[in-house]
Known about the structure:
It is built from 1 helix and no strands. It is mainly alpha-helical.
Amino acid sequence: MNISKVFAETSLFISEAFARIFSPTDNMYPLVGVQPFSGDPYEKKGHYDW
């Protein structure tokens, strides 16, 4: 009986993970669109130029 319980719990764990991976996303990000960049671009300096 113990082996069947372990097998059932393992199969449930794997099936829930599979369902979570392949289900539609549940992210609740706001629909604000692309934000323009208003900063200064990065300029690469020498190794010791701080």
